[in-house]
């Protein structure tokens, strides 16, 4: 009598997993939240080290910080890997 749920019975569960039905139509509120979540804009803040030997007075490292979430990355990217902000904002 193999019904495919033997492994669940071993754990003390005798019923099949329950599925939750959703109608699949996104609501305007959901779409607005999604738009806000994925359309953040920010810019990279470059790490600067003061130096008397440099013409400008400092060296700019390739290490950058996201202006939105302060996540540090090794080099510039189109989006922040942490908060997914689009990096197209003018630097201030």
List the SSEs and their pairings.
Elements: H1 6-10, H2 28-38, E1 41-42, E2 44-50, E3 58-66, E4 72-73, E5 86-87
Parallel strand pairs: 1-5
Antiparallel strand pairs: 2-3, 3-4
Give a brief outline of the structure.
With 92 residues, the protein is of the alpha+beta class. 17% of the residues lie in helices and 24% in strands.
Tags for this model:
17% helix, alpha+beta, 3-stranded antiparallel beta sheet, two-stranded parallel sheet, 92 residues, 2 helices, elongated
Tell me about this structure.
With 92 residues, the protein is an alpha+beta fold. It has a domain at 41-92. 17% of the residues lie in helices and 24% in strands. It has two helices and five strands. It has a three-stranded antiparallel sheet with strand order 2-3-4, with no helix packed on it. A two-stranded parallel sheet has the order 1-5. Strand 3 and strand 4 form a beta hairpin. The longest helix is centred in the middle third of the chain and has 11 residues, at 28-38. The chain is elongated. The mean pLDDT is 76.
């Amino acid at each position: 009598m193999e019904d495919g749920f033997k492994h669940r019975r071993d754990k003390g569960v005798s019923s099949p997993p329950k599925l939750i039905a959703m109608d699949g139509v996104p609501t305007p509120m959901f779409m607005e939240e999604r738009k806000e979540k994925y359309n953040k804009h920010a810019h990279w803040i470059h790490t600067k080290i003061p130096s008397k030997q440099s013409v400008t007075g400092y060296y700019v490292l390739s290490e950058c910080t996201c202006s939105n979430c302060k996540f540090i990355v090794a080099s510039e990217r189109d989006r922040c890997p942490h908060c997914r902000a689009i990096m197209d904002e003018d630097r201030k």
